[in-house]
Design goal:
The chain is built from eight helices and no strands. By secondary structure, the protein is mainly alpha-helical.
Length: 208
């Protein structure tokens, strides 16, 4: 059975605000990827592909996908906390909010590339912020940490491997893929690792 993290009620209010900032930043990163029109992140390729097949919004599909990934985390016996559950519930709605606020950019390569690199940076920082609260990592990041723990590989290898496999599945289903997908897959691992070091986030072992 997975470990269940104890809620620290004395710091819960502060932690909830901090973790929501992380979720909002993560939602912004996803929306930037979509609106840059250069190819989305691997998870979003899959989620957008399925949303197109089902007629559900991207944010709704992110919520549903998170719930399914949580089952894999449980099998890997990763710690589950209130942060894991709120990740599933809140990131999707944040994505839908930012998709309504941000314009879709085309034929403006400089802006589009800035959006792509900004998305990778923001997602790495967002990951470190809400994992740093120590309320339980999000389902996708729990999967990353679980694979890191089981295989002994680095965060960049664990995260990069997951992203590439998910991108392939999304492509097969007709999701939005482009050269930006490849760039993002190469950037996200180092971005997460850099952010973990900057924010001094502990994962139980060396994060090189």
């Amino acid at each position: 059975m997975p470990m269940l993290k104890t809620i620290q009620w004395k710091t819960f209010s502060r932690d909830f605000i901090v973790i929501q900032l992380g979720f909002a930043l993560f939602g912004l990163a996803i929306a930037l990827l979509i609106q840059a029109n250069l190819g989305t992140s691997p998870w979003v390729i899959l989620e957008v592909a399925i949303s197109q097949l089902t007629g559900l919004s991207t944010g709704t599909m992110i919520v549903l996908m998170g719930a399914l990934i949580l089952l894999l985390d449980i099998l890997l016996k990763e710690p589950i906390g209130w942060g894991t559950l709120t990740n599933i519930l809140f990131i999707g709605p944040w994505v839908d909010v930012f998709l309504k606020l941000l314009p879709s950019i085309e034929d403006q390569w400089f802006i589009q590339i800035l959006m792509l690199f900004g998305a990778a940076l923001f997602m790495g920082v967002a990951t470190a912020i809400y994992i740093g609260v120590d309320a339980g990592a999000g389902p996708r990041d729990s999967l990353m940490l679980g694979i890191k723990r089981v295989t002994g590989k680095s965060l960049r290898v664990a995260r990069g491997g997951i992203e590439l496999l998910v991108a392939f599945a999304g492509w097969i289903l007709g999701g939005p893929i482009g050269f930006g997908t490849v760039i993002f897959a190469l950037l996200i691992g180092p971005s997460v690792q850099w952010a973990f070091k900057v924010f001094k986030v502990k994962t139980g072992s060396n994060i090189n």
